[in-house]
Structures are given as C-alpha cells and as structure tokens.
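idk why but the lab printer keeps eating my pages so im just putting this in chat instead. protein + adenosine-5'-triphosphate:
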Amino acid sequence: MYEGEVAAGERYRVGYALQPKKVETFIQPSLLHHAKQHAIDLVQIDPSTPLHQQVPFHCIIHKLHTQHWNKHLKEFSSQHPNTIIIDPPELINRLHNRVSMLDAVTHLQISLQNATVSVPLQVVVDQPESFHFDKIEELGLVFPMIAKPLAADGTSDSHQLCLVLNREGLNSFTVPTVLQEFVNHGGVVFKIYVAGQHVICVKRKSLNDITEEKLRTLKGALPFSQVSNMSVGDKDGCCGVFENAEMPPQSLVEELARGLREALGLNLFNVDLIRDGQDRGRYLVIDINYFPGYAKLPSYEPFITNFLLDLLRTKIA
Ligand SMILES: Nc1ncnc2c1ncn2[C@@H]1O[C@H](COP(=O)(O)OP(=O)(O)OP(=O)(O)O)[C@@H](O)[C@H]1O
Ligand SMILES: O=P(O)(O)O[C@H]1[C@H](OP(=O)(O)O)[C@@H](OP(=O)(O)O)[C@@H](O)[C@@H](O)[C@@H]1OP(=O)(O)O
Ligand SMILES: [Mg+2]
Ligand SMILES: [Mg+2]
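predcted complex ->
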C-alpha cells in the first residue's frame, strides 16, 4: 500500500503545524476526541525536525509564517506527493497583503437578490514624502478613513489599525499603510468561516458608526486593535441593535464563500463582511484571514472533522 492510501478499518493521520498559541486555542480535547471517533488522528508536527522523520501523513494543515517552514514543506511535498497539503504556502501569501487579499473579491462580481458584494475604496501609502492629500481626494476618498498596515502577516503590528478623522490624522500611522474608506455599518460584522465546502456565517461586534456630529467633534486619529474579538458588552451601547441585526442572505454567503475558495485556491479562511448602513443591498468585504479562530464557532469539532473527512475520502479514494 502506498503512502496516503487507507484500507477499510484503517485510520487517517493528519499532521498540524501551528504556533503554540494556536495549538492551545484550536487543538481542543473536544476536537481531538471528535476527530478520533471519525478515524482521524490529529498529530502535532515539530517544525524543527525533518518532516520525513515524522511520517506518515495523509494530510498536513498548517499556519506558520517562516520562509524556512515553507521551504521545508515544499521539499517534503515534492518527495511525498500523496500527502495532501492544506494549503500551498504560495497561495496563502496572497492573504498576507491587504491589497492582494481584496483583489480576489473585485474580480468576483457577485450580485444576488438585489445585493452586491464589493470592497471599500482604498489607496496604498508607501512613502510619507510622496504622500499628497490631493491623491486621496482625486480617488474620492473622504474622512473618516481607516488606516491598516499593508502587511497582514500575523504579527501584532499588523492588527494595529487607526481611524483617521481629519487631515491631522494623516500623520499618525507608519507606512506602508492602506487608507480605506470607512463605511458606517451599524456596528456589526459578519464573519464567514470557510473550511472547503463547509461554510458558517456568524455576527460579531464591530466599530460603531461615526455620525456627522462625532466627526465634527473628533479630530486626528484614533488607534484600535482586533475589535471583533471583544465581547458584545465591551463596546458602548447598542446591544439590542447587535442582537437584532439581520444576517446576510444564505445564498449570498454561500456564493461568496464558493467564489473566493475558487479564486484564492484556498480551503481554510474567513471573510469579514459588512453591510452599508445607507444601502442595505451593498455588502463589502473588509478582511480575509487565513486559518482563523474556528474554535470560536459553535460545533467547530464536526465542522473541521467533516471538512477533513470530505477531503481525505475524495483525494485518497
Ligand atoms: N472599511 C471599513 N469600514 C468600517 N469599519 C471597518 C472597515 N474596515 C475595518 N473595519 C472595522 O475594523 C475592524 C478590524 O478591521 P480588519 O478586520 O481589517 O482588521 P484585522 O486586524 O485584519 O482583523 P482580524 O482580527 O479580523 O484579522 C473590523 O472588524 C471592523 O470593525
Ligand atoms: O491564528 P492566529 O492566532 O494568528 O489569529 C487569528 C485569529 O484567530 P484566533 O482566534 O485563533 O486568534 C482570527 O480571529 P477570527 O477572525 O476568527 O475572529 C483573526 O483575528 C486572524 O486575523 C488572526 O490571524 P492573523 O491575522 O494574526 O494571522
Ligand atoms: Mg478582520
Ligand atoms: Mg485580518
């Protein structure tokens, strides 16, 4: 029997290579147990030991950011073509830049049930001295804007964002940065979690709307970080608004997930989607994350296990 093949009654070995913090949150005993009951043994990979010394693997899942790991994985994959690699590092890289991540959405052209999906207007600021306010105005960008580090590479710096409220605030961020249109969306972000063909959409707390009045009183820039990880009660007011926020149509969620999965060539990611408060048919993708926090989902254990089973049964059969 060649590596990768499984006979009736045998088990699948799935290796995972993750940072210690991710192992703690994602590899819960409940996931290990559920997978085990469905013939999958999740096995921790030591990235500092050659992979060929840790075989066999039917599949490898991973989220490590070093070039060394990517090289290691590529070499292993060429020598063990029957091991399924989820996902190829060169395709994951596209999500490590806030321009290329959203490019995939721009090409999708999703329009369903009177709703459209697009991305906010944005411009890259790469050198402070070349940065002219006129360039922003020409593009039609107006205050408030949101400044996001161009790199979305998993570092805590890459999550240091700021609201830019007026011209003064344009001096408050380091380059390279993406300056993005801030769209009022009622303080709710929809997070669409994708694992192959499996898709779940949940809502989370987001930044509150910036009213005309707030914009008149606030000046400069307001830094913030990872707001959607806050619990609903952490931000000012509007709990009822959050509870009552209508979910996007399921057909839109599924079409967006399918389209992005194909366009990106990836299996494990989530999409942050907001709905324009002024135009309820206008949805915008603001962020795409590789291998997000699936453990925050209800019943993430069958979600992940079923994804792995689909993959292993299809590719190995
Ligand atoms: N264009 C926008 N208009 C309005 N609000 C936005 C916009 N972009 C981002 N936000 C708000 O800022 C939050 C963080 O933005 P974003 O998701 O891009 O950052 P991130 O650091 O990549 O987050 P994550 O932890 O999801 O990776 C969003 O959840 C949303 O509340
Ligand atoms: O995987 P990491 O630990 O690094 O953290 C990811 C985090 O998942 P966690 O909940 O497991 O922390 C994700 O949360 P949700 O979107 O699911 O809310 C999201 O914030 C990603 O952007 C983070 O990835 P990064 O952008 O930093 O690479
Ligand atoms: Mg986000
Ligand atoms: Mg992100």
